[in-house]
Amino acid sequence: MTILTLAVLFAGALAYAGATAASALYLSRKREMALILTRRLALLGAGLFLLVFLLRWAAWGCLPMTTAADALVVFVILATAVMFVSARDTTRAVSSFYLPAIFVLVVLCACAAPATFGQAPRALHGVFLAGHVILAFLAYAFFLGASVTSVAYLFQSRHLKKHHTVGLFQALPPLERLDQSLFLLIRHGYLMFAATLLVGAVWAHFDRELLGPRWYLAPKILQAVPMVLFYAFVFHARQCGLLRGRKLAFAVLIGFSLMLGIYLVRALLGLSYYHFWESSPWAS
Amino acid sequence: MGVVAVGLSHHTSPLALRERLHFPPETIPAALRELQNRLHGGAAVILSTCNRVEIYAHHEKDAVALCDDIRAFIGCWHRIPDSEFVPSLYEHKGPEAVGHLFRVTASLDSLVVGEAQILGQVHEAFMLAQDQQTVDKVLSALFQRAFSVAKQVRTETRIGAGKVSVASIAVDLAVSIFIDLADKTVMIVGSGKMGESTLKSLLARGVGRILLVNRSAEKALVLAEELGGEAVPFEDLDEALTRADIVVTSTAAATPILSPGHFQRALRKRANAPMFVIDIAVPRNVDPAVNELDNVYLYDVDALKQAAAENLEARREEIDQCLRLVDDGVAKFVQWMQSLIAEPAILSISEELHGIRERELQKLLDAHPDLTGDQREAVTQMTRRIVNAILQRPMSQLKREVATDDPSFVLQLVRRIFGLKES
Asked: What is the ipTM of this complex?
């Protein structure tokens, strides 16, 4: 079963590699065929990753989301879904900006999978925990989408400012459409992230033994609170027109980069558990 | 192949000569009839635009002789001595003529490469010839193929992307900033000709509201009445700016009338919604520093000209891919022309087999006089379907063989197999 799952995962990774190559071709040559190929291969890749998810679920009997590889599988599927929902019709060309970012995740996933797919993922106890994790992944997928759309916005805006209006500029959607798309992605991501924290708090309240009494001081939570505040600020600032256009795009990019950086540092230092303060020398 | 193209274009001749050789639309029917008389039959299409005068013809006679006749017709029709126009003429024969028509129709030979007008002009020329019944099966297929190649070139490449005139570039840029112009407000400051033409282009794209600002209230009112907009006094420029999504300036002012401060105030009031500013005036009406502001995109005459030049260059970069599509189209058409050689043989075989069918059918019907009319018809139809079904595959194969192999050998072999007379 593990070998089959790995084979499907690598096939999916290959499809994403093809989609990324096609997206690079589209970005450089603007051939419509390359964009169609990008989207079809991305769909195939997402389909195969979904199959990996189902195979893991069938093999171990619990939602596979807790190991790094499993989490990345889910995240890649959700990021692809966000791409298909947000970059459609007149904004299809933005898909080509999504693929390189998604492909980095796919590569990380393919590297981590052989070491972890032989083991069972940690079970998510209860509906609250499962809901909390799924909502968090969805929020991250929207934030990734917002960052990618920001890149497209900055690209388009820079070309307009520099009076360089040929090539990829002509294939990308109007600035107003990108701005609208960016706002929707921030709004959805922010709402999902806020819901994630809410569901997490309810879960922690009901499961004090598992998380310990000072769960709210865990590094994970200490990272999440400023993030939700940041996205709350960005969302409301855009809503009232205070932050718009290039400034909004830069804010979203910087925010996401910070979130990613802190997440990586936390993961490297092994600060992902909730009993940090109980096990630390400062615990009373 | 007896298809030729004879003519001259902006590449080979000055405007003065093209004017003298031009066929006004009302004279083309008579010219086509005259040409057909001169050629003793055959088919012809006359394409006459401001950039080219061309005659496409198909005839059984030799292509060189056909070109001679067309050249003589042109001189005779316009009463111009050969020496004055023949050096500027080009003559394309066979596949070269086909390729030339495909390039012309796909706008690869146009003065402004990629412009869409030529497709309509070729279509009109073809329709005119069709009305005059000077188009045969070959010329009809040739033009249909030319239209389909032109369509393919426009959809599969970016040859038509990006406009090249100031007014249309301004509209294209507006569309690349705003989703829908229907809910947008355009403000025009001044009453210059270029500004008016840009405004008309924006109106044609369905821009929602118009504000007309002019130092002369009378002029503003006249324009507002003419274009269906709202006249705004010059003193209210600041207030009008907050309502405008697109600003077009074309006043004769010697110094800028709109500064970054104007736009900063407007942006604050309009919650930083983007603004597109087209400054067509020389000297400029808008301070260039305005382009440094977030959410304001300023294009002056130089920027618009730069965009036009880039668009034209981008179109030129697409030409190689377009030419590949044209070459494919030419190859397919030449193959189809070759397959026509097999038509007499196919017709003979079909007649031969249907002759056998009819004889045998008659014997059967004579032997069964009790069959009703419906039954006789049903049997007749069935035998016809059987013979057609038997013929279909070998005849398609025969067309392919004569198009690719030595046609005379293949046709001789087929004639021998079916016992057909030499044609």
From this structure: 0.85
Question: Among partner residues B156, B307, B314, which is closest to A163 by beta-carbon distance?
Answer: B307
Domain count for chain A: 2
B25-39: pLDDT as tens digits: 899 999 999 999 988
* Cβ atoms within 10 Å, residue A31: 17
Which CATH code of 3.40.50.720, 3.40.47.10, 3.90.226.10, 3.40.50.1460 fits the domain covering B166-306? 3.40.50.720
User: In this complex, is the C-beta atom of A159 within 8 Å of any C-beta atom belonging to chain B?
Assistant: no
Tell me what pLDDT residue B100 has. Answer: 96
Cα–Cα distance between B165 and B186 in angstroms, integer?
A: 19
Residue B247: which of B263, B261, B235 has the closest Cα?
Answer: B263
Q: Name the closest residue on chain A to residue B157, using Cα atoms.
A: A31
The pTM of this model reads 0.69
Separation of alpha carbons A210 and A273, rounded Å: 11
DSSP code per residue over A83-118: HHHHS-GGGGGGHHHHHHHHHHHHHHHHHHHHHHTT
Query: Cα torsion at B3, B6, B9, B14 (round to 10°)?
Result: 170
Report whether pLDDT(B99) > 90: yes
CB contact under 8 A, A245 and B291: no
Query: What is the number of alpha carbons within 13 Å of residue B22 lying toward its C-beta?
Result: 14
Q: Are A80 and A102 in contact (CB under 8 A)?
A: yes
The SS3 call for residue B179 is: coil
